[in-house]
Amino acid sequence: MADTTRKIKTIGILTGGGDCPGLNAVIRAVVKTAHLYDYSVIGIRNGWKGIVEGEVEPLTEFSVTGILPKGGTILGTSRTNPLKSEEQTQQMLSNLKRFGIDAVVAVGGDDTLSVATRLHQMNIPVVGIPKTIDNDLSGTDYTFGFDTAVSIVTDAIDRLHTTAESHHRIMVLEVMGRHAGWIATIAGIAGGADQILIPEVPFDIDDVCEGLKKRRERGKKFSIVVIAEGAKPTDMNNFVTASSKVDEFGHEQLGGIGHLLGRAIEERVGSETRVTVLGHVQRGGSPTAHDRVLATRYGVKAVQQIHEGNYGVMVALHGDKIVPIPLSDAITQKKVDPELYEMARIFY
């Protein structure tokens, strides 16, 4: 229910979690739309860490000039969890009052928005904007950053095709996707991958190798395998990780499943195999036109929700409309549609 009794003068905006293309487009849209309603905007540096440590800066229309096509975020980001301790939580609340921030626009994925949900429960006006290249937030058709990541991965598959065909090799491409394989699936379809392996469907290494053998027997002397970093063989219970360290939300740094699979393929299929791990290349660079427009629409709609007193929501894409949904409906994970994944297997 909208709360029109609060007098809003200043909006704070932060970008949390992993960076992705389109964040600056959101910041620009929030600042420009806020000024239409005579709101001031304060940029909170480095995600939730900034409001805990009191690192903020005023944002003006001059501040956001020229940032639309830039990747990353001019505000910086972090994976800080301000709810990890009572001391940090109180410091966050104290600094919101100290800097006169009446409402918060939180731009991020499930971790960032879970903190935003808690703030709403504390009666702090907050609106969320969905950001993740993994496209794994429920409640919205697409998150911004996803289209750019898919474009980068598709381009990588196209490039690997030429060298794989020239050398008669099997190429394994490891891409991002901790719990959901949206990038692997969509880019794999777009790039004509010969196997796509995702977290939602545990895979049998023997089955993968058998499929590659049959492809070779049909005269196909090269293959492309796209695997999400969170994909797991059927005989493993845990992720393959690059480090034992975890962030403040308890997430391990994933990486290595591609190399594990590559070794297995070379041993069992007998074909020369190479592994490419795209890693943070998927996050970088200028956003696509699609992501620039989507991020801009999200930023405008978020400020409009604040102006209307509609707090505790995330702005979401439903069809071709941007609509508000409860934050509590937004922070569950969205898995790859099984029908879409089965369609991709037609081309194996």
TrEMBL record:
Catalytic activity as recorded in UniProt: beta-D-fructose 6-phosphate + diphosphate = beta-D-fructose 1,6-bisphosphate + phosphate + H(+)
Keywords, sorted A to Z: Allosteric enzyme, Cytoplasm, Glycolysis, Kinase, Magnesium, Metal-binding, Transferase
Record InterPro entries: ATP_PFK, ATP_PFK_prok-type, PFKA_ATP_prok, Phosphofructokinase_CS, Phosphofructokinase_dom, Phosphofructokinase_III, PKF_sf
Catalytic residue positions: 134
Activity control, per UniProt: Non-allosteric.
Enzyme class (EC, first level): transferase
Binding positions (substrate): 132-134, 169, 176-178, 229, 274, 280-283
SUPFAM superfamilies on file: Phosphofructokinase
Pathway: Carbohydrate degradation; glycolysis; D-glyceraldehyde 3-phosphate and glycerone phosphate from D-glucose: step 3/4
Site positions per UniProt: Important for catalytic activity: 131
One Gene Ontology term from the biological process aspect of the record: fructose 6-phosphate metabolic process
Binding site for Mg(2+): 110
GO MF, one annotated term: AMP binding
Sequence positions that bind diphosphate: 18
Xref: Pfam families: PFK (PF00365)
Domain of life of the organism encoding this protein: Archaea
PROSITE patterns with a match to the protein in the record: PHOSPHOFRUCTOKINASE
Location(s), subcellular: Cytoplasm
Phosphofructokinase domain ranges (all copies): 11-305
Cofactor: Mg(2+)
EC number of the protein: 2.7.1.90
GO cellular component: 6-phosphofructokinase complex
Quaternary state and interactors: Homodimer or homotetramer.
Assigned protein family: Belongs to the phosphofructokinase type A (PFKA) family. Mixed-substrate PFK group III subfamily.
Known function: Catalyzes the phosphorylation of D-fructose 6-phosphate, the first committing step of glycolysis. Uses inorganic phosphate (PPi) as phosphoryl donor instead of ATP like common ATP-dependent phosphofructokinases (ATP-PFKs), which renders the reaction reversible, and can thus function both in glycolysis and gluconeogenesis. Consistently, PPi-PFK can replace the enzymes of both the forward (ATP-PFK) and reverse (fructose-bisphosphatase (FBPase)) reactions.
Entry protein name: Pyrophosphate--fructose 6-phosphate 1-phosphotransferase
Gene behind the chain: pfp
